[in-house]
Design a protein that fits this description.
globular; alpha/beta
Amino acid sequence: MAEAFFARQLSTEDIEKRIQGFPSWLEIDLDAITHNLEEVTNRVKVEVIPCVKTNAYGHGLAPIVAHMMKRGVKQFLVAKLWEAEQIRDAGLDCEVVSMDPLFSDEHFDAVVARNITHTVYQKGTADRLNSAAERIGKKAEVWVKVDTGLGRVGVKWSERLNSLSIFLHSPSRNHRFILNMSEDAELRQDPSGPDGGGQR
């Protein structure tokens, strides 16, 4: 829980002692983080899922996540599995989505066991998550990643319906979102799609 995380933190006096002798340090204004979060939330009018990769962009992963949890944020996105595990190690029970490629059974098992949502766009990854879920005895949480034009990774837009029909039918996985990557910020109709124009 976020409250418990902050209750374990050092006192101001202890922090001041620890920084003695260092030539420089960062002081993060959590009120500014709150202001920015409120500005974004008020503009988009939907749930905000902050990306906190790379140590929350140098701000400090666990404290930033804990602070935003106290402000109502329920889900966070990370780039690496170890970042998701760091959030769990801090005792934070928010939902965490990892985009990191997984290679070993140990990593697949960790994702399922620690309630980390994983992004999938290849059948092999989905199958290995199924196997991990069966070994551990719980469902794997999954986002399906669809590439809508950026051309990096993800299910191709033209293949989305066939791929989603494969990904979305498994008793060992929960699917809650579809994550897409677009080349621009506009939603456009694609008349070439087999469904007559699925919206990007």
